[in-house]
Amino acid sequence: xxxxxxYRLTTAQPRTPGEDPAPVSRGDVLRTLLWxxxxxxxxxxxxxxxxxxxxxxxxxxxxxxxxxxxxLVVRGLRGRR
Length: 81
Prior knowledge:
Layout: H1 26-51, H2 55-80
């Protein structure tokens, strides 16, 4: 039984000497970038809360977080089909 690590950026394939690893797919890169956007925008929203920033800053960072998280959810549900 083989186990593939879902957090690995290359596909787990047996390698022969001199063979290049499988390339990283566009979907893997997009998922990684979306997670980075979720984390950065959530941290920006927290920093805005501590700094007492204007409400528009909170709304903007919150909308970015919701859109990126929603995109991750939609992509995850579509991937199950």
